[in-house]
C-alpha cells in the first residue's frame, strides 16, 4: 500500500472531520443522517492516519508530491 495522501490533503480531511463531528453534535443529527456524518468522518480520519486513500488508487492520483 503506497501512501498517496499528502500533508495539505490530510489537513483538509481533518478539518472536514471536525466539521462533520461538530455538525453531528450541534445539529443533534439522528438516524441515517447522523450515521452517515459519523461514518464519513471515521473514513476520512482513517485515511489521514494511514496515509492512503483507496479512491485515489484506481486513478493513480497522489497528493504527496514528487520525489526528488
3D structure, described in words:
This protein is an all-alpha fold and 68 residues long. It has one domain (7-56). The protein contains 2 helices and no strands. The chain has helices at 7-26, 32-50. The longest helix is centred in the N-terminal third of the chain and has 20 residues, at 7-26. The two termini are 20 Å apart.
The averaged pLDDT comes out at: 93
Largest sheet: none
The global form is elongated
Multimerization status: single chain
Instruction: Tell me the number of helical segments per DSSP (H or I, 4 or more residues long).
Output: 2
N to C succession of SSEs: HH
Rg, please? 14 Å
Strand content: under 5%
State the low-pLDDT regions, or none.
none
Number of domains: 1
- Structure classification: mainly alpha
Range of helix content: 55-70%
Number of strands: 0
**Intertermini distance:** 20 Å
What does this entry show, briefly?
Helix content is 57%, strand content 0%.
SSE layout:
Layout: H1 7-26, H2 32-50
Essential attributes:
68 residues, mainly alpha, 2 helices, 0% strand
Amino acid at each position: 500500500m503506497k501512501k498517496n495522501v499528502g500533508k495539505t490533503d490530510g489537513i483538509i480531511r481533518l478539518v472536514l472531520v471536525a466539521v462533520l463531528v461538530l455538525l453531528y453534535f450541534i445539529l443533534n443529527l439522528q438516524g441515517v443522517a447522523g450515521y452517515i456524518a459519523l461514518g464519513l468522518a471515521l473514513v476520512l480520519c482513517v485515511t489521514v492516519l494511514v496515509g492512503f486513500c483507496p479512491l485515489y488508487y484506481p486513478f493513480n492520483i497522489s497528493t504527496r508530491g514528487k520525489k526528488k
